[in-house]
Amino acid sequence: MPDAVESKDFKKKYKIKKSIKNITYVGSFYCGRGIDLILKVAKKLKKYNFYLYGKRNNNEIRNLHIPNNVKICDFVDYYQIPTILKSSDLLLMPYSKFNVSINSRKDNTVKFMSPLKMFEYLASGAPLLSSNISVLKEILIDKYNCIIVKNNKSKTWINEIKKIDTSYRLRKFISRNQIVTAKNNSWFSRSNKIINHYLI
What is the pLDDT of residues 20-34, one digit of tens each? Predict the structure, then answer.
């Protein structure tokens, strides 16, 4: 069953800006999380600031070129996450379809993953761009509560970022539906679903 989120942690209202300036990724830097893809995108989109939160081990990015418009930030405590996400204009979730690893092991979790950060992204209200992975679409709906990018080619992600930057109304629509989706996926509702499943 998919994970959930405590929406009350994200109660501060999110305001959509007329244009995108700050783009954020929060999560691990392991293989398969899309850090290399984000860096390729940032290199071509110099007008945006990219913030990557979650660095714990320099080995993951040691051989990668970090463009000047990218700031690599260390791991932060959970209580800081709502503020970080709500200060962003766009959130990225560029998972790979292969070799998504946990704790540096080579376990492929793509078929059953349910990222906590996806629900935190949704609860923040900051528009989300996600990879096109089937299991994520249990929750994500393209152009309703996110933008699903059809493939993980940097050119495709660049084009989608440019398009959504010019689509203020779409970003506002997505933001509103993200918050609704998060509220419908609380830990309380999740626990009730589990209880009801085993009582039937």
Answer: 999 999 998 887 889
